[in-house]
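Class I SAM-dependent methyltransferase, pasting as requested.
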Amino acid sequence: MPDTALQQGFWNRWNTETREQRRDEVSWRQQREVLGWLQALDRRDLDIIDVGCGAGWLTEHLLPFGRVTGTDLSDQVLARAATRIPQARFVPGDFMALDFGEAAFDVAVSLEVLSHVADQQGFLRRVARLLRPGGHLMLATQNRPILERNRIPPPEPGQLRRWVDRRELRALLEPEFEVLRIHTVTPRADRGLLRIANSYKLNRMARLVAGDGFERLKERCGLGWTIMALGRRRPSAH
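Structure tokens follow.
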């Protein structure tokens, strides 16, 4: 397992080269799902923690819902985010070692972090301890059956990678969370039959004929790039 300094170096470089520069449709759709869940809570006084916030690209969109804390291993990137988004609090460091207290938040958001931690069950236990009774986890992670069928470069030094499928994710969540929603979003692929089923041209034609119904059908069938999960902390999570 890479040491913390190696991981920190990788994520500082990755966030600088990617999330500080651009976002793709995968990120936009994850944001849309999370903001929809937050709007459904119908509150503007939430304490929210954005775990693995990277460049803070989502953090600033969480501010209308309450007080927001962003945390990430990428200390250099977080320092720039703190300057750019002074309304939020940013705490750099290893999430598993940082002290945020217990039962300090109403909502924890975590996008594409789970697959990059060594102890996934321990990570989710840690998130659960941060949440108040009835608190919500809003999580996105890579959908293993789809990513395995795409051209993905091998992990770089300092990059941990362990993708999961929907069944595996549910099993990881259920000890700590009541799973309220779990589904895939953003169908895409660049190899084999999935490349045809998830092609941009086919999706565009389908939207012209039937709106987004065809794309939503593929997402319900598990063909999305991302698994989205909404969970509520179990009373026994502490």
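Note for the archive: The chain has a mean pLDDT of 90.
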